Amino acid sequence: MTAIRAIVTDIEGTTSSISFVKDVLFPYARKRLPAFIETHADQAEVQHWLHEAAKEAGLIEASRQEVIELLVRWIDEDRKSTALKAIQGMIWKEGYEAGEYRAHLYPEVASRLHAWRGEGLHLYVYSSGSVPAQKLFFRYSESGDLSPVFAGYFDTETGPKRETVSYQRIVDAIGERPEHVLFLSDIVEELDAAKAAGLQTGWLVRPPLTVPAQPKHPAYTTFDAIQP
Ligand SMILES: CSCCC(=O)C(=O)COP(=O)(O)O
Ligand SMILES: [Mg+2]
């Protein structure tokens, strides 16, 4: 294996359980989204993302109510829309700051990230969640504030997670050759895209899922099994 200098990690299904995102974060945002939009509609950032959501849906002259209904539908569909993710992040901020929840991390993740950082590796996040949502996630984690271990964050403004060009942009941005970067994810299509860009890959197969006999990517059930 070529020496790894940087690790880029996915969140949902990789550092953290899918159920925390689907059963805690998504319902929190879904319940509060209509009132949040109504009370923050005068903010330029909110207006921008409402406009982007309508554009993505091909709605030419959508009412505010129509866009709210669209966004709620997208939460139910788990659509990886950059606009939806930006708005969800703004709503989750209130929940984290009010202490309504802390972000789930698998038990070994925090110590392993600290160990890798201590070994001089540069650590990054690449998630469909917006960069502000990622920062909140690791700041308010069940294992404490992990912000200090990360050198940077990438979201779908860099590009979709299943497209090779996104990984080319990430390695360019972090200033490493792709073969020195390890991308960790639970989604094979994301790993395929990263591999096509020349990155090394690690497939997190979290129990109760099991590693297939001939995995398409080096597969691990925990971060502790990865030796970069
Ligand atoms: C940043 S926390 C919320 C994660 C999220 O909204 C999501 O869709 C997770 O996608 P990932 O790319 O981390 O699997
Ligand atoms: Mg994932």
CATH architecture of the largest domain: 3-Layer(aba) Sandwich
- Provide mean pLDDT, rounded: 97
Q: How would the global form be characterised?
A: globular
Low-confidence stretches: none
According to CATH, what is the class of the largest domain?
Alpha Beta
Give the tally of structural domains: 2
- Beta-strand segment tally: 6
- Structural class, by secondary structure, is alpha/beta
The amount of helix comes to: 40-55%
Order of helices and strands: EHHHHHEHEHEHEE
- Main beta sheet strand tally, sense and closure: 6 strands, parallel
What ligand molecules are bound, each kind once? the ligand CSCCC(=O)C(=O)COP(=O)(O)O, magnesium ion
Give the strand content: 5-15%
The value of Rg in angstroms is 18 Å
Largest sheet, spatial ordering of strands: 3-2-1-4-5-6
Would you give an account of this structure?
The chain is an alpha/beta fold and 228 residues long. Helix content is 46%, strand content 11%. The protein has a six-stranded parallel beta sheet with strand order 3-2-1-4-5-6, sandwiched between helices. Helix 1 (18-40) packs antiparallel against helix 3 (64-77) and helix 4 packs parallel to helix 6 (131-139). The longest helix is centred in the first third of the chain and has 23 residues, at 18-40. The structure holds ligand L4RZE5RM and magnesium ion. The ligand CSCCC(=O)C(=O)COP(=O)(O)O is lined by residues 10-13, 21, 25, 80, 85, 127-129, 133-134, 137, 161.
